[in-house]
Design brief:
The complex is a heterodimer of chains A (295) and B (296). Chain A has 295 residues and is of the alpha+beta class. Chain A is built from 8 helices and 14 strands. In chain A, the strands form 2 sheets. In chain A, strands 1, 2, 3, 4, 5, 6, 7 and 8 form an 8-stranded antiparallel sheet that branches. A 6-stranded antiparallel sheet of chain A has the order 9-10-11-14-13-12, with helices on both faces. In chain A, a hairpin with a 2-residue loop joins strand 6 and strand 7. The longest helix of chain A has 18 residues. The N and C termini of chain A lie far apart (44 Å). Chain B is an alpha/beta fold and 296 residues long. Chain B has one domain. Helices cover 29% and strands 19% of the residues of chain B. Chain B contains 9 helices and 9 strands. The longest helix of chain B is centred in the last third of the chain and has 20 residues. The chains are: A alpha+beta (295), B alpha/beta (296). At the A-B interface, helix 2, helix 3 and helix 6 of A face helix 1 of B.
Chain lengths: 295, 296
């Protein structure tokens, strides 16, 4: 591991100091090894190679890594990320939520010896250097202590409020900015056909209609303004559903339905709906929520 | 590269399965299958290379390397085979990979060093490095490179293979992360590496076939495949590797879980940068050794 911490600006120095206080020096019999490491958007590559790109796809500011040691036990590593906002902390957390919710922070996920959770503007990974029968309980204990220290909750992305609740699989709500992350959840194209960027906010969520085994997906993108939304919408229609007439609904090669709509500075798309009617109804409900709740 | 259609999910649905992208992208990128000779790639496996404690047997991995290199170069003696690739006055850099969850096995590094020494290169002229290559005097003055790393999925570039392993030869790796890392092959034209690579070895001893985890690593999605893929064409090795990882995901999940990002850089390496062959139909995989559940 790299022991040399990067030089930090005054603002980053403040962040670094604050983050240090969020990590307890001692958690029951686990103590810090005293060799914290701090990385920013540039230096994070030194710590995690290309995996840093995922964090950089959000407003990641600073990472503090602390190792907790206990005699005759594998060390536990905690990675505390300042994600700049609670929205982006939720976003990075939502990237992978396929494991067990263990009730830590504002959302958590434990599996394969890794605890992930978010609280406020912070996202946390905690994992042991190797697994033993006690690993799980120790990791969860450390995670709870860190979550308690963070103290303050933060809001989820506003876009989540506009998702129709019925038949929504809540654990599958993903929040992101870039097309690479969209491709992780649902490969659409190797090119950026929606013209997504750091100033676009997007939600991708899964719906399971009653009586249907196959999943339907909802994508909602918020652009900085209507002009950019129009550009993104046109780019998508041209690349993905060029045969669509004014209805902007097509049946794709898997027999499912895709339907899309531009609403002010929002682009809404339903993928893989079991029928035209169900797809258009879900799209309409989402648009109604946008109109009613006024973001 | 000439203008081409934007590929979308629907293109892959149209082609039923993306067959590691090779088959799906191939027809779109190429007007016809070229008639050139196939590229030779060696796949060698040994079921005993990892023992019951999870340790890699150095003798077996040495034998795998020797047999694979001999088969690749049509030689019967491994030292003679290595002498075909290097001269005693060469300065040899072994570009490895230190990514801590799944590094290049040190036993494999040692096996390569042994043969480079056997070929007459003095120890002082042999270097192994990854992140420090730009500052390493051996690599800065190298005349020959050997490229060795494990095969794994990579959330940004689709897979981490031979092509991507040279990203440390540039000081700003993140500038090569655009469009699913498609410009990666351009690094192979930099003076520090251009024309120096004598052999690529993709370690399949353990492969990571699916991403999850703090650093996109989860032990549950690591397979003990117990193999090596050997050849001189990094694009061909990566194309076969990408195909293998897809087959491993299908075997594990009982369904195809596409890569986070398709390995566009492999096809760009072929079509745009002319670094090698990505079309699986033009790659001849010569199989040696234990082939149970080889998938390919």
């Amino acid at each position: 591991m790299i022991s040399k911490a990067p030089t930090l600006s005054a603002e980053k120095g403040d962040r670094k100091g604050g983050m240090g206080q969020l990590l307890p020096l001692k958690i029951e019999d686990y103590k810090t090894d005293g060799k914290d490491e701090v990385y920013d958007r540039q230096t994070a590559f030194r710590y995690m190679n290309g995996a840093a790109e995922l964090y950089r796809a959000y407003d990641f500011k600073l990472l503090r890594v602390r190792k907790y040691v206990k005699k005759d036990h594998p060390s536990i590593l905690v990675e505390l990320f300042d994600m700049g906002s609670s929205e982006d902390a939720f976003g990075i957390f939502s990237y992978q939520t396929e494991e067990e919710e263990v009730g830590i922070g504002q959302g958590s996920d434990y599996g394969g010896g890794l605890l992930r959770f978010w609280r406020g503007k912070y996202f946390v990974n905690a994992f042991a250097e190797r697994e033993t029968p006690n690993t799980r309980e120790d990791i969860l204990m450390v995670g709870r202590a860190v979550a308690t220290n963070i103290k303050k909750d933060g809001p989820k992305p506003k876009l989540t409020q506009f998702l129709p609740g019925e038949e929504l699989v809540r654990k599958t709500i993903r929040y992101f900015h870039l097309h690479q992350v969209l491709n992780h959840h649902y490969f659409l194209s190797h090119e950026n056909i929606f013209n997504l960027g750091m100033k676009t906010n997007a939600i991708f969520a899964t719906y399971l209609f009653q009586g249907e085994k196959a999943k339907t997906f909802l994508l909602m993108i918020q652009y900085p303004d209507q002009r950019q939304a129009e550009k993104g919408f046109k780019g998508f229609v041209k690349a993905y559903m060029p045969e669509a007439a004014s209805s902007n609904t097509v049946q794709t090669e898997n027999g499912k339905w895709t339907t899309a709509k531009l609403h002010q500075k929002y682009v809404l798309v339903i993928f893989d709906a079991p029928s035209r009617e169900k797809g258009e109804k879900l799209l309409q409900s989402t648009e109604n929520n946008l109109k009613r709740r006024r973001p | 590269m000439r203008n081409r259609k934007t590929l979308t999910r629907r293109d892959f649905l149209r082609d039923a399965a993306y067959a590691s992208m090779g088959a799906a992208l191939g027809p779109l990128l190429k007007e016809e299958i070229r008639a050139e000779e196939k590229v030779k790639v060696i796949l060698i496996r040994d079921e005993n290379v990892i023992d019951s404690q999870g340790n890699i047997n150095p003798k077996i991995i040495q034998k795998m390397l020797d047999d694979g290199v001999c088969a690749y170069l049509n030689e019967s003696d491994p030292i003679q085979a290595w002498k075909k690739m290097i001269k005693p006055n060469d300065i040899v850099g072994i570009k490895s990979n230190v990514w801590f969850p799944l590094p290049t096995p040190k036993e494999l590094e040692e096996a390569i060093v042994k043969r480079v020494l056997d070929a007459g290169v003095p120890k002082k002229n042999i270097g192994i490095d990854d992140r420090g290559v730009l500052k390493n005097p051996i690599f800065k003055s190298s005349t020959v490179l050997f490229n060795v790393r494990p095969l794994r999925t990579h959330h940004w570039s689709g897979i981490g293979g031979c092509i991507k392993n040279y990203v440390m030869f540039v000081s700003t790796p993140w500038l090569y992360h655009g469009e699913a890392c498609s410009p990666l092959a351009s690094i192979w034209n930099k003076p520090i590496v251009k024309g120096k690579t004598r052999l690529n070895i993709l370690s399949l001893i353990r492969t990571q076939f699916y991403n999850r985890g703090a650093h996109h690593f989860d032990q549950r999605f690591v397979s003990e495949y117990k193999g090596l893929l050997i050849g001189n064409d990094p694009v061909a090795l990566d194309a076969v590797g990408a195909h293998l990882l897809q087959l491993q995901r299908i075997a594990y999940f009982k369904e195809d879980k596409p890569l986070d990002n398709p390995p566009t850089h492999i096809f760009a390496a072929d079509e745009k940068y002319k670094l090698g062959v990505s079309d699986l139909r033009r790659i001849n995989v010569v199989k040696l050794g234990w082939m149970e559940k080889s998938l390919i």
